[in-house]
Design a protein that fits this description.
The chain is of the alpha/beta class and about 650 residues long. The chain is built from 20 helices and 31 strands. A hairpin with a 6-residue loop joins strand 9 and strand 10 (about 240). Helix 12 runs antiparallel to helix 13 (about 375-385). The longest helix has 18 residues, at about 105-125. The radius of gyration is 30 Å and the shape is globular. It starts with 7 loop residues before the first helix and ends in an 8-residue tail after the last helix. Mean pLDDT is about 90; it is low at about 525-530.
Length: about 650
């Protein structure tokens, strides 16, 4: 029999065909995780045999569903997402081997995932470790080869990492922390999708807690069928989502003080209005159902399943499938996205469904109460506890309203803990303000002013020294003085050395009442506000005097939040009649705009709306001063 001569291309086609015709795996990810799944003591509080929570089962099923090419998890923390991801990886090593790529927000995070999550999983599951090729070059920390494929852990910040290999399963973990534009080569999800183009059954898996209005995981979730978990009321059996707006708790007045009682938190049924105890949650979830909520077009109209309440178990994903698929309320046909050859599946879940000990409804209510009035804490609560994007309140602060709220006091409040003076340095003047600080970081503007003159001349600084030593009268007619004076050293021209020389003056160093510090503002964008300390001492050895660095934009976030508070709120900023219209115009002289930085991340930036903003800088420095005293345990303004 004569041999058939085939071209290289024809051979590749046949090879791919034979590969795809190989027998399908006998079990899916859910069965695999139940049969072989082990939770390692190295990274799990619960160890031993894995027993999936009911809400995890359908998600695990979709990990091996070849009809789904995009799988998105928009989630809070503490819902078992990392465990699900690891068992999907293990399944595609031991049961249905294929090439896999997992991207993390940075190379450091990629190393951490391999070391703290993947390697303990391999050590715990012999069914996985037995498949690995043991040679040194095929088994490194971030790259492991096995029969039928490999798993590679990569950082998602550089274009070269996306061009490293092709894979059937491509994952993007903590996707909201990725840049919006990777090295000016495009969206990270699009770059990931290109890595799996040669596989007819390739799957892109993206998961993350969301962040702000520019959330990437939220945009990807909206591309999917948008599954939410519906559970029956323990009283009337009406199905509903567990949403924080329906978690209610008691409030009462105790000795004239309004008090919230989060330990009484329960879920109020949207149908019968009865209160559901947290202890009923597991039984409710065991009878729960994932339901599609994405809108679709049918019978000449757009339909929202949340409004029409039209779902049916179509058994699209196997006999074990219990999902509620959206159908037309008129013709009962499946929603159009259920008829596609390749479907895009999205899951949203929050910590109210979680069974971890610290995620009770009572604890969640406590976290919410703690976050009220603090925009940064509320952002964290929305993102990490509820799995929701945080929409920043863009309330324009009116300088005229602030002027109208000025008060008639002239003396320092008796409950003041400390007086802080802040100084902004310009070439031809110094601008200053003095504030009194009380419990809860409530502040009182006491005095403000301007010293005219060339700041390279000594007489200007002599005036500042005299003003900083003014004694102020308290409401009981006793006296107090400024304890801390912070002076901006990042001004124009040669003012930096001039400030250093002033704080090193003998009278400043030996002052019995006032400490003088040189400061410098850092940062123009708010991208790292959540991790930066407000004030830190500089480690620059070339500086001639002790220098403290201030996270300016983190302070501005706090200040603009506090300017929205009510008069009786802790943190409210009081001002007397010494503060004029120009001061408040300067205080409200900036606003936030979104820009892309050099690494492609979308960041918030404060931009001026008028030329002069010294008052805002003075408030920043004053706030940094109180944070420094608290940091060094010299003062405690906690409530």
């Amino acid at each position: 029999m004569n041999a058939i001569n085939l071209t290289v291309k024809e051979k590749d086609i046949l090879k791919q065909l034979f590969k795809e015709l190989k027998p399908k795996p006998k079990i899916d990810v859910l069965e695999f995780s139940k049969k072989y799944g082990i939770l390692s003591a190295e990274n799990s509080a619960i160890t031993g045999r894995f027993r999936p929570i009911k809400y995890q089962e359908d998600i695990l099923l979709d990990g091996s569903n070849s009809d789904i090419d995009l799988l998105v998890f928009m989630k809070s923390t503490r819902v078992g997402y990392t465990t699900i991801l690891k068992f999907i990886i293990a399944y595609h090593i031991a049961e249905n081997p294929c090439p896999q790529l997992i991207f993390q927000p940075s190379d450091k995070k990629a190393n951490e995932f391999s070391k703290k999550e993947l390697e303990p999983l391999i050590r715990a599951m012999k069914v996985v470790s037995s498949k690995l090729i043991k040679s040194r070059q095929d088994n490194t920390q971030n790259y492991k080869r096995y029969v039928g494929g490999f798993i590679s852990s990569l950082g998602g910040q550089t274009p070269n990492n996306y061009a490293s290999a092709t894979a059937k399963i491509v994952m993007g973990d903590e996707y909201d922390r990725f840049p919006h534009d990777v090295g000016k080569e495009g969206d990270p999800a699009e770059l990931m999708e290109k890595r799996m183009e040669s596989f007819w059954d390739g799957k892109l898996i993206l998961g993350s807690t969301p962040t702000g209005e520019d959330s990437k995981i939220n945009k990807q979730f909206k591309r999917t069928d948008m599954m939410y978990r519906y559970v029956p009321c323990s009283h009337c059996k009406s199905y509903q989502r567990i949403e924080f707006k329906n978690i209610q708790w008691d409030k009462e007045v105790r000795q004239g003080v309004y008090t919230e009682l989060p330990h009484t938190a329960k879920l109020k049924c949207i149908s019968c209005s009865k209160m559901i105890d947290h202890k009923d949650k597991r039984q409710m979830d065991n009878q729960g159902q994932w339901r599609q909520t994405q809108v679709f077009f049918c019978c000449d109209e757009w339909q929202d399943p949340k409004i029409t309440l039209s779902w049916k178990n179509l058994k699209l994903d196997g006999d074990q499938d219990s999902k509620g698929y959206a159908i037309c309320y008129k013709c009962n046909k499946p929603a159009e996205y259920n008829t596609l050859a390749k479907r895009k599946r999205g899951y949203h879940i929050n910590s109210l469904y979680s069974f971890q000990p610290n995620t009770t409804w009572q604890n969640t209510a406590t976290k919410f109460i703690e976050a009220k009035g603090n925009e940064e804490k509320m952002r964290s609560f929305k993102n990490t506890w509820l799995g929701e994007i945080f929409e920043q309140k863009r309330i324009k602060i009116s300088n005229s309203k602030l002027l109208s709220q000025t008060e008639d006091y002239t003396k320092v409040p008796l409950d003041q803990e400390v007086l802080i003076m802040s100084v902004d340095t310009q070439k031809t003047w110094l601008q200053w303000t003095v504030k009194a600080w009380c419990k809860g970081e409530t502040s009182y503007g006491i005095a403000q002013g301007k010293i005219e003159g060339d700041t390279s001349q000594r007489f200007v600084w002599d005036k500042l020294y005299n003003i900083s030593n003014i004694r102020y009268t308290l409401q009981d007619n006793t006296e107090t003085c400024v304890y801390l004076c912070l002076i901006d050293s990042g001004g124009i021209g040669s003012t930096t050395e001039t400030v250093y020389n002033f704080v090193l003056r003998e009278e400043c160093l030996n002052s019995p009442t006032t400490k003088y510090l040189a400061i410098k503002g850092e940062g123009n964008k708010t991208e790292d506000n959540s991790v930066r300390e407000i004030i830190t001492e500089s480690k620059n050895k070339n500086v001639n005097a002790p220098l403290f660095l201030i996270a300016v934009n983190k302070c501005k976030d706090i200040i603009y939040d506090r300017l929205k508070l009510k008069k009786d709120d802790f943190g409210y900023m009081h001002y007397n009649k010494n503060f004029d219209e120009e001061y408040f115009k300067q205080l409200t002289s900036e606003e936030i705009k979104f820009t892309k930085n050099k690494r492609g991340y979308l960041v918030q930036e404060y931009v001026k709306t008028r030329d002069r903003n010294e008052a805002l800088d003075l408030e920043v420095y004053n706030l940094a001063g109180i944070k420094l005293l608290e940091k060094e345990n010299l003062l405690d303004l906690s409530i």
